[in-house]
Write a structure and sequence with these properties.
- This protein has five helices and eight strands.
- It has helices spanning 2-9, 12-25, 67-71, 106-110, 136-141; strands at residues 38-41, 50-52, 77-83, 89-97, 116-118, 133-134, 154-163, 166-177.
- It has two domains: 28-44 and 147-180, no CATH class; 45-143, Alpha-Beta Plaits (2-Layer Sandwich).
- Strand 7 (154-163) and strand 8 form a beta hairpin.
- It is 21% helix and 28% strand.
- The protein is of the alpha+beta class.
- The strands form three sheets. It has a three-stranded antiparallel sheet with strand order 1-7-8, with no helix packed on it. It has a three-stranded antiparallel sheet with strand order 3-4-6. A two-stranded antiparallel sheet has the order 2-5.
- The site of one iron/sulfur cluster has 13 residues, from helix 3.
- One iron/sulfur cluster binds next to helix 4.
């Protein structure tokens, strides 16, 4: 009874809570400082934003066989084909509506030319629904900057930029470490 009374008078529960709070002040910070100071560089197996690959000569690898569009369970991919002057099928339209994409990776698995791939991109939130509709031009630009497996699965120091081109988080190359 007296003990409870003294605990109430001396705000013992508050003291206990503050003790716990201060103990955490001196522990190693494990929270990633995204987007102001750091960003996550996913592992190379990560299924991120799709991109279209080109060969050593810079030619589009895609032969518009439409296998990716056929296997896609969500009807994400639209392809229109034409035959170029060498008689090779190419896409005149290759469009992905990523609103519907489940990132299952089937389109990548089935592609006989390694043309459509998952990159490491995950920062593709937009202000407009059209931002998530990827034309062939956009897919060609989506190739990830970082492809070195040694550097993937890490936290890189970065800076948050807001300018006329929009907002983005860019690595500054100062620091990189493994999170675990
Ligand atoms: S990842 Fe899956 S859902 Fe998305 S486009 Fe490819 S097959 Fe379709
Ligand atoms: S991305 Fe691959 S599977 Fe899809 S149409 Fe082009 S070559 Fe065929």
């Amino acid at each position: 009874m007296l003990k409870d009374f003294l605990k109430t008078v001396f705000l013992w529960d508050l003291v206990q809570g503050m003790r716990l709070t201060f103990r955490y002040q001196f522990k190693k910070v494990v929270t990633m400082h995204y987007p102001d100071k750091e960003k996550w560089v996913p592992y190379d197996r990560f299924r991120g934003l799709h991109y279209q690959a080109v060969d050593e000569e810079g030619e589009l690898k895609c032969v518009a066989c439409e296998l990716c569009a056929r296997i896609c369970p969500a009807g994400v991919i639209t392809i229109e084909a034409y035959e170029d002057d060498k008689g090779v099928r190419r896409p005149s339209v290759y469009e992905m509506d990523l609103h519907r994409c489940a990132y299952c990776g089937l389109c990548v698995e089935v592609c006989p030319e390694d043309a459509i791939n998952h990159g490491a991109g995950y920062e593709f939130a937009g202000f407009d629904r059209a931002d998530a509709v990827m034309s062939l031009e956009k897919l060609l630009k989506n190739k990830p900057n970082e492809t070195d497996p040694e550097k993937m699965g890490t936290v890189a120091s970065a800076r948050f930029i807001r300018d006329k081109d929009g907002i983005r988080v860019e690595e500054d190359g100062k620091k990189r470490y493994r999170w675990w």
